[in-house]
Amino acid sequence: GGSITLDISTRKQAVAVTVADTGCGIPEDQIDNIFDRHFRGDHGQPSSGQSNGLGLAIVKRILDLHGSRITVSSTMNQGTRFEFSLPTPAVA
């Protein structure tokens, strides 16, 4: 069993979010496609259930609507890390 870590921190006018896991990783040649609708990666692992490949596409679209972007870094057999920030409203 691997683990998933969620880190949330406040920055100037934004909240920074990092989601990292200790899973099998994402092959480098698939990183550019993981945010595409209906993309399901093939990394030699059996599927753990049914997926329609929409999750990351939806996340990316929501972040786009907030003027943010998501970055990903991954190392095979070590895990994957996603990072993004969301703007916070100005306090008067």
Structure description:
The protein starts with a strand and ends in a 5-residue tail after the last strand. With 92 residues, it is mainly β. The model has no long low-confidence stretch (mean pLDDT 88). The chain has a 4-stranded antiparallel beta sheet with strand order 1-2-4-3, with no helix packed on it. It has one domain (4-87): Histidine kinase-like ATPase, C-terminal domain (Heat Shock Protein 90, 2-Layer Sandwich). The chain is built from 1 helix and 4 strands.
Topology:
Layout lengths: L3 E8 L2 E8 L33 H11 L4 E6 L3 E9 L5
Antiparallel strand pairs: 1-2, 2-4, 3-4
Note the overall shape.
globular
CATH class category name: Alpha Beta
The total beta strand count reads 4
- CATH homologous superfamily placement: Histidine kinase-like ATPase, C-terminal domain
Distance between the termini: 46 Å
Major sheet characteristics: 4 strands, antiparallel
Order of helices and strands: EEHEE
Binned, the helix content reads 10-25%
Residues in β-strands, percent: 25-35%
Low-confidence stretches: none
Q: State the domain count.
A: 1
Structural class: mainly beta
CATH-defined architecture: 2-Layer Sandwich
